[in-house]
Structures are given as structure tokens and as C-alpha cells.
Amino acid sequence: SIQLRKFGDSSDTNRGTRVRVFGRVHRERKQKDIIFITLRDGYGQLQCIINAPLSKTYDMLTLTRETSIEVLGEMCEVPKGNNAPDDRELQVDFFKIEPEWKAAGGEDAITNRVSADTEHATLLNLRHLTLRGDTASSVMLVRDTVEFAFNQVYRELKIRKVSPPAMVQTQVEGGATLFKFDYYGEPAFLTQSSQLYLETCLPSMGDVYCIEKSFRAEKSLTRRHLSEYTHVEAELDFITFDDLLEHLEHVMCRVLEVTLADADTAAHIKKLNPDFKMPERPFMRMRYSDAIQWLIEHDIPNEDGEPHKIGDDIAEAAERKMTDIINRPIFLTHFPVEIKAFYMMKDKEDKTITESVDCLMPGVGEIVGGSMRIYDLKELSEAFIREEIDPTEYYWYTDQRKYGSSPHGGYGLGLERFLAWLCNQHTVRDTCLYPRYFKRCKP
Ligand code: 4AD
Ligand code: MG
Questions:
Q1: Each residue of 372-415: pLDDT tens digit?
Q2: 2-105: which CATH architecture?
Q3: Which tens digits make up the pLDDT trace of 205-218?
Q4: CA 11 to CA 86: how far, in whole Å?
Q5: Any idea where the Aminoacyl-transfer RNA synthetases class-II family profile domain is (predicted)?
Q6: Candidates 229, 357, 421: which one to mutate for ligand 1, based on the most atoms within 8 Å of Cβ?
Q7: 421 CA to middle of ligand 2, Å?
Q8: What CATH architecture applies to the domain 129-430?
Q9: Distance (Å, rounded) from C-alpha 1 to C-alpha 133?
């Protein structure tokens, strides 16, 4: 018999041949003489038919979900519409279950077939098992393709991948969310963003990107905040703010195109998010000041329950209401200096606002934050003073402004948020393998 190690390798070529496969019992249905098993191996699913006398053996009569099994038999075609994955089934004539392969029983409770009233915390403690469920595994498979697509699209654009450090001594996005630790007796942090390091690569490598973990001590429970998340960041040299927006649009749409070109992944997305459609280009552009006006007109209050006014942060709830109503990607631009990070370039005409952008998506809100960067040394020094940041630790960042500075900009995209949007997931906790957030650091 030929060995068909992974169902996904299968295609039609195996029909009519004898194969040997390994998998886990995803579903089983026992009838009088016949047992139907759906096997799962991470690449696909395979329906197996076990007739008597095999169906009368002790191992088959006591078979539980999640048990690992080896089966041999003939692969047969099944007419379309019979609910057999890939329209085929295996007529099993031999099987083997080693004693250690057996699942303990009660597995329904640990995959995605758990009952609706199971405690959320219990589910999260069981993440290592709920990962086996249909939804969780689909999301993780989509994630794999999306991450690969980012790499492919950046390569198409000749943007080089680098790997900045995770342990740092400088902050990027404000002191409040820093994770501090002791680094051989010196204070250090887990990085909030690799941006500053990416900027230092421009002179030698041209445009660069990275896909690294970023860390934020977010002391609240929300649908979209993790303490550790995957940050797709890029930095582009000699560009204008408009170039930045166009690049961002291109990357996001191209990543979606590449992702959907993979048939398996497209099928998972279709199942998770049946209403998904490619965003229209160009994305809607909206200035911060117009967004405030829009929020006032739509009676959406700020965090204090008051009507929005210029200078307010647009908080998560308001932002999401806005994106849900507008229902398409939005580039929100030109935020005021005082609510944005120290490194952001000011607008040429209006020095109270920045050349900044947040990309907002329906259902999630902000998934990208980016800006042009201050590239003048004096202006940067003033920004450090304004934000009360001690510039000494930043000598390597300020040096960039001494030795051949350039107009440049970049952005960071939260991979989990991008996936929450693409896969229609309620929270970013479901779009990463083992979520880390306020007070959760296990499993
Ligand atoms: O808007 P942020 O804070 O921007 C930066 O860190 C820039 N230095 C990036 C850059 O220009 N290179 O974060 C960027 C994105 C957000 O839009 C969001 O998608 C994601 O990172 N993000 C988080 N995702 C999950 N959990 C958190 N706690 C996040 N904080 C930010
Ligand atoms: Mg942001």
C-alpha cells in the first residue's frame, strides 16, 4: 500500500488506490454494523468507513473522539453533496490503535463542541485542547498563510526583513504600558515596537520590515488588547505621507489577494467569514478633525460621556461604532500632536497636527498605526522635552538625524487584529495561539 501521510497531499490521484493514513478521530458515529469516522490530521479531514467484522472489535466499540489511529484501506470516490470531505472516503480493512493513542473520554467538552455555558476562563485554561476545534484550527491555519503572505508581499516590493531586539532600554509608545525587567542589574523593557530600530536600518538596507512580538502592559480587559502580540512593521525611506498611505493600501490588499489565492485558506475564510469581501481601493480617507465632527453629528460621546471635541482621544467604543456604521476600511489621518507619539512628523501647514494615520476596520477598529517621522535633530530634541523623555538613552536614534537624515515613515500592523477582522472573530484572544493579556500568562 502507498503511504498517504497527510490528507492534504491527497487530491483525486488516490481514489481507487490503497492507502495508509494516520490521524485523530474528529467525529465518530456508531451504527449497528458500521462505524463512520471523520479523521483529522491538520491538513484536512477524511471520512472512514468501518464495516463488520472490524466494527465489532473492542477498540472500535469503545472508540472515543481525539483518539489517534492508523488506518489502511481503499480510497473511494463519493458523489458530491454527501458531506464527505473532498468527496471521498476510505473503506477501512485494517486499523491500529496503540494503547497510548487512546483519548481518555469526554473529549466533546474540550474541543469547540463545548456547551455554551462553559466558563470563559475554563476554556482559556484549556486552550491547548480547544485549539483542536474547528474554528480555532481554521483561524490558526489562516494565520499561517497570512503571515507567509506578508513575507511574500514585502519581498515583491524588495523590502528587506530584519530582526530587531525584543529587550530594549527605550520606550516607543509611552511609559504607561512598559513591561520592565532587571537586565543584569540595569532597568530594561520588553519592546513596545521595533520602529526605532527599523529606522536605523534605512541608511544601509533601504526599506525594511519585521514581524516580531511587541509587548504592552495593558491593564484592562478588552476585545483587542493583548500583552504580547505579533507586530508587522515596515519603514520606508524618502517617501511622502501620501506614498505611505498608498503603500499601506497596496500591502493590505495584496496580502489578502495572496492569502485568498491559496484554495485551502480561502475555504477556511469562507467558513469563518462568509460575508468577507475585498476592500475597495482607494480606502476612505478621513481627517481626525472631520472624524470628531462626524462623531458629534452621530451623537457618539467621548469616554467621559460628553460630546467629542478636538483634542479628544477617539476611544475604542466610539471608534468601533464609527467603523461599523461606515462599514469599510478608513484611513484616519492628521491626529493632534498632543495625543500622538513623540517621533511623529508635524503637518507642514498646521503644526498642531501630525502626518499620522490609523487604519480602522469594521468590527475591530484600529489595526494599523503609522506616521511620517521627525527627521530633523532640533525638532526631535524639542519633542523629547515636550514628552518629558530623557534623550540620553536614545543617542542611537538621534544619531540618525546627525549623519545623513532623510524624510521617511512607516507603520505597525497588529496581526491578531488584522486576523480578527479577516476571520470575523470577536476578540484578538482567538487569533493567536496562546493569548497573553491582563493577568493571563498560561497555558
Ligand atoms: O498604534 P501603535 O501603538 O503604533 C506603534 O507601535 C508604532 N510604533 C508602529 C510603527 O509605526 N512601526 O501600534 C500599532 C498597531 C496597532 O494599530 C494595533 O493593531 C497593534 O499594533 N496593537 C496591539 N494589538 C494587540 N494588543 C495590543 N495591546 C496592541 N497595541 C497595539
Ligand atoms: Mg495606535
A1: 999 999 999 999 999 999 999 999 999 999 999 999 999 999 99
A2: Beta Barrel (2.40)
A3: 999 999 999 999 99
A4: 8
A5: 142-435
A6: 229
A7: 16
A8: 2-Layer Sandwich (3.30)
A9: 31
